[in-house]
């Protein structure tokens, strides 16, 4: 599984967009980029995933560079409830492929 | 919508005792994953099952065993508990399709005293 690197922490003002970067320079062709978040010891929550095209859902947008070596998770209007640890994970396409959690980015949204 | 159900939510055991954690996946999900998260740490993969067979194994101690039953629920059995086994244990499930997301339960907090 490809290793991902993320900044350990970020701050964001409430109502502003939060842009969380992730580097995955060794990602292989069949690995997807998944984003999860964990709010204060709750179970990790799925956010979004993609292969090479940009993706958007009701929670966030995922922008993947053309060379697939990095990506950015965008929370368009951060709220206090978005304060969490965000994990970027490279995972194979098979449903039995495990998720390997790195250290993640601790996002603090402030009023 | 139904989610992944884990029981119990909290468990307190003494050293050298045994514990059994249960996971009930989302209906029609046939893959289950177990994770351990120690205090201040990130979730660590333990083991996974697909169609009742072990599909992958991570850093699971030999004192731990797990299985997936015919109804797809899974149990993690932990014996000779140590203080260091105190952690959150998460179960996740997914269904048999390519590039499908896994959904996590709310976890079992195990405290070994």
Describe it:
- The complex is a heterodimer of chains A (111) and B (113).
- Chain A has strands spanning 9-13, 18-23, 31-38, 45-50, 55-56, 61-64, 70-75, 84-92, 105-110.
- With 111 residues, chain A is mostly beta strands.
- With 113 residues, chain B is mainly beta.
- Chain B has strands at 5-7, 10-13, 19-24, 31-37, 44-50, 53-57, 64-68, 74-78, 87-94, 103-104, 108-112.
- In chain B, strands 2, 4, 5, 6, 9, 10 and 11 form a seven-stranded mixed β-sheet that branches.
- The chains are: A mainly beta (111), B mainly beta (113).
- The A-B interface holds A 32, 34, 36, 38, 41-46, 49, 51, 85, 87, 93-96, 98-104 and B 4, 31, 33, 35, 37, 42-45, 48, 50, 55-56, 58, 88, 90, 92, 94-107.
Distance between the termini of chain B: 36 Å
Q: Main β-sheet of chain A, in a few words?
A: 5 strands, mixed
| Average of pLDDT of chain A | 94
Q: Structural class given helices, strands, pairing of chain A?
A: mainly beta
As a percent range, the share of helical residues of chain B equals under 10%
Query: Which structural class is indicated by helix and strand composition of chain B?
Result: mainly beta
Cα radius of gyration of chain A in angstroms: 13 Å
Shape of chain A: globular
Kindly provide the radius of gyration of chain B, computed on alpha-carbon positions and rounded to a whole number of angstroms.
13 Å
Mean pLDDT of chain B: 95
- Output the strand order for the largest sheet of chain A: 1-9-8-3-4
What's the quick description here?
Chain A is an all-beta fold and 111 residues long. Chain A has strands at residues 9-13, 18-23, 31-38, 45-50, 55-56, 61-64, 70-75, 84-92, 105-110. Chain A has a five-stranded mixed beta sheet with strand order 1-9-8-3-4, with no helix packed on it.
List the helices and strands and how they pair.
The complex is a heterodimer of chains A (about 110) and B (about 110).
Chain A: E1 9-13, E2 18-23, E3 31-38, E4 45-50, E5 55-56, E6 61-64, E7 70-75, E8 84-92, E9 105-110
Parallel strand pairs in A: 1-9
Antiparallel strand pairs in A: 2-7, 3-4, 3-8, 5-6, 6-7, 8-9
Chain B: E1 5-7, E2 10-13, E3 19-24, E4 31-37, E5 44-50, E6 53-57, E7 64-68, E8 74-78, E9 87-94, E10 103-104, E11 108-112
């Amino acid at each position: 599984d490809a290793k991902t690197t993320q900044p350990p922490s970020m701050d964001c003002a409430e109502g502003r967009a939060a842009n969380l970067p992730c580097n995955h320079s060794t990602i292989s062709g069949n690995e997807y980029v998944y984003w999860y978040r964990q709010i204060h010891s709750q179970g990790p929550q799925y956010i979004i995933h993609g292969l090479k095209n940009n993706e958007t859902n009701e929670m966030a947008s995922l922008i993947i560079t053309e060379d697939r070596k990095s990506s950015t998770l965008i929370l368009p209007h951060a709220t206090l409830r978005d304060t969490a640890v965000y994990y970027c994970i490279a995972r194979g396409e098979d449903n039995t492929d495990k998720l390997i959690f790195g250290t993640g980015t601790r996002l603090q949204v402030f009023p | 919508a139904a989610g992944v159900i884990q029981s119990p939510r909290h468990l307190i055991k003494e050293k050298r005792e045994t514990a059994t954690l249960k996971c009930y996946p989302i209906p029609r999900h046939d893959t289950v994953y177990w994770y351990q998260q120690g205090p201040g740490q990130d979730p660590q993969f333990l083991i996974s099952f697909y169609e009742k067979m072990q599909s992958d194994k991570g850093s699971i101690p030999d004192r731990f065993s797990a299985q997936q039953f015919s109804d797809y629920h899974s149990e993690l059995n932990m014996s000779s508990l140590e203080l260091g086994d105190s952690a959150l244990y998460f179960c996740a499930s997914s269904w048999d399709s390519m590039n499908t997301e896994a959904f996590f339960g709310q976890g079992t907090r195990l405290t070994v005293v």
